[in-house]
Amino acid sequence: MTFDEFDLSDDLLDAIDYMGFEKATPIQEQAIPAILHGEDLIACAQTGTGKTAAFLLPVLEFMQHREKHETSVLIIVPTRELAIQIDQQVQGLSYTLEITSIPIYGGGDGDDWGQQKNALTKGADIVVATPGKLISHLNMGYVKFDKVEHLILDEADRMLDIGFHDDILKIISYLPKNRQSLMFSATMAPKIRELTKKILKDPKEINIAMSKPAEGVLQAAYLVYDAQKVKLINHLIADKPEYQSILIFCSTKKKVSEIEKTLKNKKYVVKGISSDLEQSKREEVLLNFKSRKTRVLVATDVLSRGIDIKEINLIINFDVPQDAEDYVHRVGRTARADATGVALTFINEDDMFRFHRIEQLIEKEVLKLKVPADIGESPEWKVSDNRRSYSRNKGKGKGQGKGKKYRDGKGGKSRGDHKYNKN
What is the pLDDT of residue 18? Predict the structure, then answer.
């Protein structure tokens, strides 16, 4: 389905063409007509399906026929990076429409606060905000949301995971009851259903099945002890010029720092991204990675959703992601737009069942490899039926049983990551 089959203005169609959009994705085909019809909507669709345009296009169409300089669209998102990305898409799609927007997020300085206050006071047409920072402005009493006509919650499941449930309800208390509300989520968990009942009115429901990793992604996994992981990274990327853009995911920001330091010592152009960086520095790191000035970027799952970085050649999962769906989001950072890419996952002896769950989700058995002989022996692949422990290779492979520096034990998100997402 092409975009000119929707009831969109010529100016908006010109912007769509300028942005390089050609055919509508499944979520766009189903969501755009429903939103244009004025329905509330709950849509389950993963990152990379085109959901941002699915809600931006119809609300931009609405905005062409109303008075400007009053905030009529509020978009709430879990992370500052996603707020910035959506704001950039608004600017791209509305470049002929004279529509103003402002991203509201934490981590900046006093100048950022002043700019945000000015935009909120004068009434930017579209506000894209993280909950915590928006509430800080609301508490000051100068934010006027009495003209908001469209509320959009993007990555609602992520916001609830972080702990934004009460913040979301508080923000909604400032909005008119007569509005259109749209909720987008990667999963339809029970907590999402409960939130839906509180804020949506007779919503249309759209479920886009979680897609498998793109056909262009070559997936493989290494059976490895923790102490061997950094050596394996060096083995994989040394003297490999075809890997011009490499993204390494790990479970904690502590590991981000340690991996970055180790790879720098090996003369790689590498940067880590975490809450330890100032916001301006984070934006600089992302920009340099996108422009290929930085070859290796090390990050937590904050980059696995909602960040559009094209032409990443290699994804390395330093840890098996805790949730099977996060694997799809991580791997989805490569082989975008019909390109090809490689996604490799390091599986230690404690993560085998977790990776088995991933294989069940993607309905594919991933090729499992042993580490090169000069790195040592690998643990044997065996999934325990009781989900508690996994058989270990009894041989003393090189590096086996060591490597406390990189050992996390549970592979979960750190408190720092949660704090990062709430700003």
Answer: 82
